[in-house]
Structure formats: structure tokens, C-alpha cells
Design goal:
mainly alpha, rod-shaped
Length: 96
């Protein structure tokens, strides 16, 4: 939700700074940024999912119990959300 507010805020700031655009340009800008939020989040989630697969395989090889594997799954899920939402500025919900 915060990212949607940021998109709206960026459009308002551009208008205040005198950067005016036609309705089609504004709509195109909002659509392209929204698509980037969704696609970027999905790509980050896919990347973390692939890495998680190898981590779990390695943990099973070392004899880790189910509790450790579940804990690692939650930790990587939260890390994926944080990475997508904060540093990458894409949809964290898509990324986790």
C-alpha cells in the first residue's frame, strides 16, 4: 500500500514542480510503474525461491531436522519481503 502512495506522491510532486503532462502520459507512467512493482517483486521472489531450494537441500544433506528447515523457510520468506519492499522498492507482497 505504501508503494501505491509513493506513486501518487511522485505524480503530485511533478505537478507542483511544474512538470505537467497529458492525461495519457500520466496514466502510462502509473501503469508502467505499477507493472514494474509487480514484475520486480515476482522476480525477487523467484530468485529467493531458487536459492531457498538449494539451502533446504544442503540442510537436509547435513541432517537438519524439520524444525530447522521450517525456521529457515520463514526467515527467507521475511528476508524476501524486506528485500523487495525496502531496498528494491518493488512489491514486497509479490516477493514473498
Amino acid at each position: 500500500m505504501a508503494l501505491k502512495k509513493q506513486l501518487w506522491h511522485a505524480q503530485v510532486q511533478d505537478m507542483r514542480n511544474g512538470l505537467t503532462a497529458s492525461g495519457g502520459e500520466v496514466l502510462g507512467n502509473i501503469v508502467s510503474k505499477t507493472l514494474w512493482l509487480a514484475v520486480g517483486g515476482a522476480l525477487i521472489g523467484l530468485g529467493f525461491g531458487i536459492v531457498m531450494r538449494y539451502i533446504l537441500r544442503w540442510m537436509r544433506h547435513l541432517g537438519a531436522g524439520i524444525e530447522q528447515q521450517v525456521a529457515m523457510t520463514f526467515a527467507i520468506g521475511y528476508l524476501s519481503y524486506y528485500t523487495a519492499n525496502a531496498p528494491a522498492h518493488v512489491s514486497g507482497a509479490q516477493g514473498s
